[in-house]
Write a structure and sequence with these properties.
895 residues; mainly beta; 6-stranded mixed sheet; 5-stranded mixed sheet; 11% helix; 38% strand
Length: 895
């Protein structure tokens, strides 16, 4: 046995080295210089070099609440930290926050810059016409794209519609010959009485711009069958109803009704050894990709039962398994519906050596499992790293059967154990989670009284301390919410995100369930470690010395516009390039000089959203006879449907909907409802949004200049990506991965460069199938055509015939302060205007001084209800701040 004690000195030295490295990484990137270190022949230095080349950030997105009504404002704070120390990070200048609808389409994108103290926060206005449904908030920095979009943090919110709450569709689904049949029944609220809407239209792919299916309203139930080929990738449709003269829209998800489920088996350490007992974990998911509970048995080739098992938490469980050499094993599993399926177990390896771990009360034990006949070898190394920094790397002592680590040896987070041979090949891996209470700040909330009346001032002191009671400084965001209206989030918080889910790929269901202080939660957490992998670095390549070199996405320190200028016969070596920033009026000017090749760049530009850049080039003598070509502007990662978790509609109190609707009317005037049109019985004609002769019934959705205006597209390529089936790769436009013809103002263009076309000049664009354009253009239109009609005829942007170019920027969002009324006079307190706030108070940046204290004050609203207080943030030391237990009592009676 080897006991690891008194090792804190080595840990501190390692972390201090990384702190220094992290402090330097912003300067390294800002000067476009990669820090070069001599590659040393040690595992610690290889990991350290990787981290210095490729440091990482983490994000947690906090909102004032999780349920909103269309027309409201969503308030958020983006907690940006460095991935290792979890301290506030400010190397990246901007954070992007996006609202994505259930179809996977971008609704809104805002670009946030830090305030004077380095904190990122902002707001997203929710449009009145947003259909009801589950939406996702996605946040990232430009640099975070290097680790992949699967690691972007997502937060699920629900947006409700006041009209939708008056009539509630209840839908039952069934399978008919691979088609899905929907039976829709309507109930009125709040009495749950069966009603029939005046009209119901179903949009199978959720797009209201396309022709919907008018449903027959005969009978109490309405029926619709989704043909297999009709079901969209998002499995989301939109149901529009007319009831009481008003139109409501709501998204619904088509469930996977297949009875199949899948079970994956994971031998501890990654490999199954023969002739020894091993621990086998498993995870079961249903056809929707979510967990499902199962039970089953393991059988050998003769049908003998070798093990019984049953899932314990979110489809996961474990059992002990013994592999007899030469035998194969399978499992027969059944779910709660009585469906049984067979799955083969992983085949054993005769020379497998696997890492095993076991948490006890005072230590973590790491041991090896192997076949009795398998030699260990003499050059094995046990490595343990946390978020990319090696905390332990020692040769495995064959004379000892295990290694013990003190419980507090590892900092909080996911520890990745590796067993490496002399060739630096990974023989086995094992994840464990180190849950250290010392990583969490202790939060105490003190109020000036026990309960409050309407419109009374609340004075609140928040004390932040470490586990030993010492004061800690930092900052946090504070949300005070009416608990009657909105229930607290019990699924995730800043702790579960930054310590757990941000280091695991894929969607983690209910991450907070793994961090409860009990034995069953600890068991479930270890199952998660066995079935989910840490993959932010390519560890096998790191161990071989192949650290990540050039990164495709640099740190974003400002907006950037670049390009090239040409004289009459060669590159413009001398001259002047100017950039004008306009938003209603001129708000800034920039100057640049071309290099010897005519290249120029304007970097670190910073202007608010809605700004347009005009770039002009002049020769040294002031002549305009020069030609300017701008590089393509940045392209943002498209949202992916698979990243939006699928949950049911949350319970929403009726009085909350009425209160929020009344509040909206008070603040904004009369709410604009979509009133139903008079229905004339006749064949519905498809609305034609183009005058192009190539339009036909088989054409795609038509994107109009109104869509361009709403979408804030940076380039024509961004607009084309909105057409169904169209993909853009390296400025090559294809339909279902096949090249297509381009018809510009009804004239065929060969190898057309869409960079020459300003997106704001487009009147409409659509895809026309080969059946419509093929008869005129033959094989050239064999894959169809993209038909573009411009507003005033095509005027080429002409890369080489103008000294002026324009470009629309993605500017930062200007700060708007959350409105919290102050009833500091008798007149204000006795005002007859109702105070119907659901978010009572929102402060995205509460600073904690060196004494560990912060003070805030606000006034209560009119409704008598308990207020929930949620505090989330980060200390300057990297300790995480979270508190969600405090409740403020708002009484309706006198004291």
């Amino acid at each position: 046995m080897k006991d690891i004690t008194n090792s804190s000195g080595k840990l501190i030295v390692a972390l201090c080295c990384l702190v220094t490295s992290l402090n330097l990484w912003a300067d390294s990137y800002s000067n476009s210089v990669c820090v070069q270190q001599t590659v040393q022949d040690t595992l610690e230095n290889l990991f350290r070099e990787q981290l210095s080349h490729f440091p990482q950030e983490k994000l947690y997105l906090q909102t004032d609440r999780g349920i909103y009504m269309s027309g409201e404002t969503l308030w958020f704070r983006a907690h940006l930290v460095d991935a290792l120390m979890l301290k506030q990070a400010n190397a990246s200048r901007y954070v992007y926050v996006e609202l994505v609808n259930p179809l996977g389409n971008l609704v809104e994108r805002v670009k946030i810059r830090p305030d004077s103290l380095g904190c990122f926060y902002g707001h997203i206005p929710l449009g009145e016409d947003l259909p009801e449904g589950n939406y996702s908030l996605r946040a990232y920095t430009w640099f975070m794209q290097n680790i992949g979009e699967e690691y972007f943090p997502h937060k699920l919110i629900y947006i409700s519609d006041p009209v939708s709450e008056a009539i509630s569709p209840e839908i039952n689904y069934s399978v008919e010959n691979n088609d899905i049949h929907a039976e829709i029944h309507f109930l009125s609220k709040p009495d749950n009485r069966s009603v029939t809407p005046t009209q119901a239209i179903l949009f199978p792919d959720g797009d209201r711009d396309k022709q919907g299916k008018v449903l027959s309203l005969e009978g109490e139930n309405i029926h619709y069958t989704f043909k297999k080929k009709e079901i969209p990738a998002s499995r989301t449709f939109l149901l529009q109803t007319v009831y009481d003269g008003k139109i409501s829209n709501r998204y619904f998800r088509i469930p996977e009704l297949g009875k199949n489920f899948d079970v994956a088996f994971f031998p501890e350490g990654g490999h199954a050894a023969q002739s020894t007992t091993i621990k086998m974990a498993f995870k079961a998911i249903d056809a929707d990709g979510l967990s499902t509970e199962i039970e089953g048995q393991v059988l050998d080739e003769e049908g003998q039962v070798c093990a019984d098992f049953k899932s314990q938490h979110l489809g996961m469980g474990s059992f002990r398994m013994y592999y007899v050499p030469g035998k194969k094993y399978h499992a027969v599993c059944s779910d709660g519906t009585g469906v049984s399926q067979r799955f083969d177990l992983p085949e054993p390896s005769p020379d497998a050596i696997s890492l095993n771990t076991l948490w006890s009360k005072d230590y973590l034990r790491v041991s090896l499992s192997k076949s009795p006949d398998t030699p260990l070898g003499t050059s094995l190394t046990l490595v343990a790293h946390l978020r990319g920094i090696v905390l332990y790397a020692q040769p495995w002592d064959n004379k000892q059967s295990y290694v013990d680590f003190e419980k507090n040896f590892f900092p909080a987070g996911i520890v990745h154990f590796l067993l490496v041979d002399e060739g630096r090949n990974i023989l086995s891996e094992r994840l464990v989670f180190s849950l250290q209470k010392s990583a969490l700040a202790q939060t105490e909330v003190r109020l000036d009284r026990e309960n409050y009346l309407a419109r009374e001032r609340v004075d609140m002191d928040i004390q932040i301390k470490d586990i030993n009671g010492n004061p800690m400084s930092g900052n946090f965001a504070l949300a005070v919410v009416d608990r009657t209206d909105v229930k607290p989030d019990t699924v995730s918080n800043i702790v579960s995100t930054l310590l757990l889910t941000s280091d695991l790929k894929g969607h983690i269901e209910s991450p907070l369930s793994y961090l409860q202080d009990n034995r069953s939660s600890s068991y479930a957490l270890d199952l998660l470690m066995m079935t989910q992998g840490w993959r932010k670095y390519n560890i096998p390549e790191v161990l071989k010395g192949n650290v990540t070199g050039t990164l495709p996405y640099n740190l974003e320190l400002g907006d950037e516009v670049s390009g090239k200028v040409e004289g009459l016969f060669s590159a413009l070596k001398e001259g002047n390039i100017s950039l004008l920033a306009l938003k209603d009026s001129l708000i800034g000017t920039e100057l640049a000089k071309p290099d010897r090749n005519g290249r120029f760049v304007f970097d670190r530009l910073e202007y608010p959203s809605g700004t347009q850049y005009i770039v002009q080039a002049l020769s040294k003598k002031g002549s305009s006879k020069v030609f300017i070509e701008l590089d393509p502007y940045k392209s943002f990662p498209a949202p992916k449907i698979g990243f939006i978790p699928r949950i049911e509609k949350p319970h929403i109190e009726e009085n909350y909907m009425a209160k929020m609707d009344q509040k909206y009317t008070i603040e904004n005037g009369m709410r604009v409802y979509n009133l139903a049109e008079v229905i004339v019985t006749a064949r519905r004609e498809r609305a034609v949004k183009t005058e192009s002769p190539f339009y036909s019934v088989g054409t795609s959705k038509v994107l109009t200049e109104e869509d361009v205006k709403k979408g804030h597209f940076i380039s024509t390529y961004d607009l084309l990506r909105r057409l169904p089936g169209i993909t853009v790769t390296n400025n090559e436009v294809r339909y279902r991965f096949a090249p297509v013809m381009v018809l510009l103002d009804n004239v065929p263009e060969e190898n057309f460069d869409f960079d020459l076309l300003d997106v704001d000049d487009i009147k409409d664009v659509f895809y026309s199938p080969a059946t419509s354009v093929g008869p005129l253009y033959g094989s050239a239109a064999g894959n169809g055509a993209i038909v573009v009609t411009t507003k005033n005829g095509f005027v080429q942007k002409n890369k080489m015939n103008s000294n002026i170019q324009t470009i629309a920027s993605v500017g930062y969002q200007q700060t708007v302060e959350f409105y919290s009324p102050a009833y500091d006079t008798k007149a204000k307190k006795e005002s007859i205007t109702p105070d119907l706030r659901s978010t009572i108070y929102w402060n995205p940046n509460v600073q904690v001084d060196e004494s560990g204290t912060a003070h805030v004050s606000f006034y209560t609203a009119d409704s008598a209800a308990d207020y929930g207080v949620v505090i989330e943030g980060v200390c300057t030391s990297g300790n995480l701040i979270y508190s969600g237990e405090k409740v403020i009592s708002r009484h309706s009676d006198s004291y």
